[in-house]
Amino acid sequence: MNSLTQSQSWKTLQSLAAQLDGQHMRDWFKDDPERADRFTLEACGISLDYSKNLITQDILDGLLSLAKQQQVAEKRDAMFCGDIINHTEERAVLHTALRNFSDKAVMVDGVDVMPEVMATQDKIRDFVERIHSGQHTGYTGKPLTEIVCIGIGGSFLGPKIMSEALKPYWHEGVNVHFVANVDGCHIHDVLAELDHEQTLVVMSSKSFTTQETLQNTLTAKDWFLQSGGKQQDIAKHFICVSSNIKAATEFGIAEENIFPMWDWVGGRYSLWSAIGLPIALRLGYAHYRELLEGAYNMDCHFQSAPLEQNLPMIMALLGVWYTNFLGAQSHVLLPYYHYLRGFPAYVQQLDMESNGKCIAGDKEHVDYATGPVIWGSEGTNGQHSFHQLIHQGKVLIPADFMLPLRVPNQNDTHHAMLASNCFGQTQALMQGKTYDEAYAELDSKGLSDEKRESLAHHKTMPGNKPSNTLLFQQLDPNTLGALVALYEHKVFVQGAIWGVNSFDQWGVELGKVLGNQVLDKIQNPQQPLDLDASTNALIQRFRQAL
Ligand code: F6P
């Protein structure tokens, strides 16, 4: 038994969960007209209505006690001041330093990292301005208007999804393309459309060892050379972002073309480092900086707001409630804004790679659930697909709905419909429809009693399904920065409660090693097939098809 599950706060929450049986949120709303007000918070341009959750004040108090017991605030402060909290990799966790707009020093191993951070910001600003102004041209003097960004995981999702989300703020005159997968179809399709004389390749890899990114960059380099570029022209067309300067220079990237990052920035938290360069190229430096400032605002809120008014804290505790006490295994994100459609995929890496762990502290195997499955897609599309299961299925799926109140080029009819669907879904999930209501609705349909009864059963909706509603005035760069930081800190709080290391990712390593062994056997048919029978047979089939 783990100390967490044996703790008083845990046991209190278990008994509160048992007392929920037979209670319904629709009654809570009827009995308490203040409920929506009481359970709404606002910070950094984001309003969170969490009143449609399966919580009472006692439950919330119990969750807050759990956070205190697990010393979440102390752990948060340790992260911000550069303690080595990623203990398996012996690293500090300081993505927050990359958006630190205070004049406070941030120390790592006794050295203030802020001058280096600021110098890199200056380098990004200068580079973006030189590309946008046409000062930095390709080898034939043509402006570089096609930016091909190569990276995967955190070196791809943040830059791509944030660029997409901020489409109304795009700088005109450049096109930005993203390639992640080693599946050659993608890089070939992207390059096929481009003029190499006008193409800039931005290769992003913190480690500079990632197979997909290295291979896609080699393919882009071959394409550039085969299209007429010469080896000496590469410096004008290829730049990279990495913390592994040695490997990058050995690969052939000129040192002045390397944008640095640091080992205290985790891959899935790296969009705030020079890994975010594609966002700056897409938006222009001023809007890119607003994105960072929004995240900084959320950092300040997270550090200073009392626990019960702290947005990341509350969202994290609600997640813990569902995961550990009500048996939820997944959490759905539903942005009602087309440009934010990639956000579920972004949070998927952030959350699942951070908290999908089973060891707490140094070596304790946990006996409780940790990170849930994160999934979702844009509204209203999901309503015509998977919402059925959320409404009437047998699994509990807490939801985060998101909606900007104003959108660019607003068409009032479209936007009113979008908003009404979003709000209507939260209402339907919460209140459901009773059997009596469903039966009464079938009154004038001329059905037999038997048919009417049966249909009423099918049309009954249990309700009591939890959701948060996050509203923004509009999704400008500042608000998006705050939103991303909100989810980062939510994940941090949950990891702190579960005692896992949210900043390593050992679970992805084995697959990489075995994949390389298999590659060796595929590329060298003389290699013996000495793996398990299934994998041997798969390799054999592949060899035969070559
Ligand atoms: O394989 C997982 C991972 O290491 C992620 O954590 C990271 O975001 C991604 O791969 C890319 O890594 P890199 O930036 O080092 O190429």
Unreliable sequence segments:
none
For the secondary structure, the number of strands is: 15
Integer tally of domains? 3
- Strand order of the biggest β-sheet: 1-2-15-14-10-13
Name of the CATH first level of the largest domain:
Alpha Beta
User: Any idea of the CATH topology of the largest domain?
Assistant: Rossmann fold
Q: Could you state the CATH homologous superfamily of the largest domain?
A: Glucose-6-phosphate isomerase like protein, domain 1
Strand content: 5-15%
Bound molecules: 6-O-phosphono-beta-D-fructofuranose
Helical run tally: 23
Mean pLDDT: 97
Give the C-alpha Rg: 26 Å
N- to C-terminal separation?
Answer: 53 Å
Q: What's the helical proportion of residues? A: 40-55%
- By secondary-structure content and strand pairing, the structural class works out as alpha/beta
Envelope shape:
globular
Detailed description of the structure:
The chain is an alpha/beta fold and 546 residues long. It has three domains: 24-82 and 305-452 and 468-498, Rossmann fold; 108-289, Rossmann fold (3-Layer(aba) Sandwich), CATH 3.40.50.10490; 506-545. 48% of the residues lie in helices and 11% in strands. It is built from 23 helices and 15 strands. A six-stranded mixed sheet has the order 1-2-15-14-10-13, sandwiched between helices. α2 (8-19) runs antiparallel to α5, α8 (157-165) packs antiparallel against α16 (343-355) and α13 crosses α14. Residues 152-155, 205-207, 210, 213, 267-268, 353, 505, 508 line the site of 6-O-phosphono-beta-D-fructofuranose.
